[in-house]
Structure prediction request, 336 residues.
Amino acid sequence: QDVVVVPEEAIVTASHVGIGSQVKANALMARVQEFGLEREFADAKIRVGRAELEVRNAERGYAAEAANAPFYSDVTSAKLVQAEQRVLSAQAATKEATAELSRAKQLMESGFFSASAVDRAMARLSQEKASLEQAQAERRIAAGARAVANAGVLFDGNRLTGEVEARKRELRSARDNLEIAEHELVAVKQRMARQEIIAPFDAVVKRVEHAVGATVNRGDTLLVLEQHGAVPQVMAFLTQDEIARVQLGSVGYAYIPALDRRIDVKVIRVDRQFGFTPDAQSLPRWQELGHRDAVVRLEILDHAQASALTTGMPVQVNLPRGGPSQVQRVFARLGI
Prediction:
């Protein structure tokens, strides 16, 4: 048998099968509604909507700033050209003032110029050098402004204008937030899809543990299915003391009172913790007597006989204990 469990704490909202129902693989068997999931879904959709709006606003802001980038480039290029021309002009004036000072000194030595004429020439040279240094400084500023204009920023001489890089960062952040919100929405949708209980294979419903309207906890058994074509197995419920003497692979026999038939069986699984799982709560009361909280699964060696058996039949199982001549008898039932 295969146990269908509830993925999260929920309420059973619909059931499309009953005991004995034949179901096909991927058929819808039941629906559950996880507590608070509808609200989470609505909140996730709101977050995605807000993130999409932020992306659109960031895209418009970036586009507006990027549209100004050619203007910033043209302005700074023109200013750089003007600054270079002023440097050239100042260099020429400085060269001319230097030559004038040289001639004034020669004429003063020849007696044609006075010392005051030389002083005036020196003062002019100092002034032209100062103008050249100022022009060179302005050219450096213009060159820097031209460089930052490539990043969408314009320096107008007093302050920086333009926020292309800032808008680009905002756009990148908005897109990252949108991606996160979309992932969260997908995760909620996946959880909502798990609220549909789908048949994993062609099967017969053997037990329905919870009716519509019942509250179920995570891991609770909802349905028990018997797969079509599966070979029945024997499930023997033992105490912890009894299972301690069972060996994996040992061979015994099982007697089925309802058919008055004896069949050979082999131990294929020993589970001492079966009674500690939520599924143990759904076991018949007679199986709980004597604290039979351990289980042994036995394979029916003759598959031809197994095909004639019915799931749920009571069985008496005899297994070797302590030696080949000794056996122990335990209660069991047929299962898949």
User: Anything to note?
Assistant: Residues 108 and 116 are 10 Å apart (CA to CA).
